[in-house]
Amino acid sequence: MRTRTISMATIAATVLMTVGASAAFATTEPPEPTDSTAPAGTAAGSSVPEGTIPDPAECAAGLTLEDGVLTVATGEPAFPPYVIDDDPTNGEGFEAAVAYAVAAQMGFEPDAVEWVRTPFEAAIAPGPADFDFNLQQYGITPEREEVMSFSLPYYTSTHAMIALPDTAAAEAASIPALQDLRIGVASGTTTLQFVEDVIQPSNAPQVFNDNASVVQALSTQQIDAIIVDLPTALFLSATEEQLAEAVVVGQFPPVDSAEGEPWGLLFEKDNPLVECVDYALLNLRESGELEAITTEWMEDSTAVPLIDLE
């Protein structure tokens, strides 16, 4: 059972987060300013100005729900590229691989990791949790932080474009090629600002109530392309029958006006295990393992090219 109380002020005093950058870590001085045009979908960066990272395994001792076991939650079903074959126990897929890498840092062998399934919305409801941490592409937002706790970011999502094959949109690879397209976005997202500020289309983007309405508009060719965050693009193209023939044309690098959404491991509010996971993530960043996992599963396996912003 959880018996230790660890102040997050400890890590807050030593960790400087740089969200949306590729891996960066230093033990003596902060890294150079991050290039905001770095390739999209890279893991969020962090640095430790001085000293060394405390041992995650020592930190985590006695803090998990069950002694000697790390209980990790994901969705049901869980989709590629985050979990392959809906089986997180095989360690295949971006979030399955991240979970096992964090577990190893905290001293848990693979057979000591127990998986449970939770609906996405139910897991972010206040109250006791039946997991040590949950990872289902949870964006770190102020509203969620009121009722749950998050680790440091392990990934930052970016925007991507979906189009039907054999169309001008499907061949677009630069901003000028996008500006004459009829672009659809869902309301209530950061995508509209991205489209208006970065793409600056000739025609005002068409705003729909939800993703289902945008999908319908593309399938009936009311619009030429959909722009959503990359994880949603991958999900829609894999699960929506109306998009069975559609392609994820490309992803956009982060920019100052739309840096992307950082994802964190989700915890019951004020769970002291958060700090231990933060130490684990910092070690994974320093070793390059987190960046390697990100490249393998979010870049190489998805094969979504970068759209030139010039």
Coarse shape = elongated
Low-pLDDT residue spans = 1-42, 45-50
Oligomer: single chain
Mean pLDDT: 82
Approximate helicity band? 25-40%
Strand order of the largest sheet: 9-8-10-7-11
- CATH homologous superfamily annotation of the largest domain: Periplasmic binding protein-like II
Beta strand %: 15-25%
Task: Explain what this protein looks like in three dimensions.
By secondary structure, the chain is α/β, with parallel strands linked by helices. The chain has 2 domains: 9-158 and 258-300, Periplasmic binding protein-like II (D-Maltodextrin-Binding Protein, domain 2); 159-251, D-Maltodextrin-Binding Protein, domain 2 (3-Layer(aba) Sandwich), CATH 3.40.190. It is 30% helix and 19% strand. The protein is built from 12 helices and 12 strands. It has helices at residues 9-14, 56-60, 94-105, 120-123, 142-145, 168-171, 175-178, 191-199, 211-219, 230-239, 273-287, 289-300; strands at residues 16-18, 45-47, 70-74, 113-117, 133-134, 148-157, 159-163, 183-186, 206-208, 225-229, 247-251, 261-268. A 5-stranded mixed beta sheet has the order 9-8-10-7-11, sandwiched between helices. Strand 3, helix 3 and strand 4 (113-117) form a beta-alpha-beta unit. Helix 3 (94-105) crosses helix 11 and helix 3 (94-105) runs antiparallel to helix 12 (289-300). The radius of gyration is 20 Å and the shape is elongated. It starts with 8 loop residues before the first helix and ends in a 10-residue tail after the last helix. The model is unreliable at 1-42 and 45-50 (pLDDT under 50).
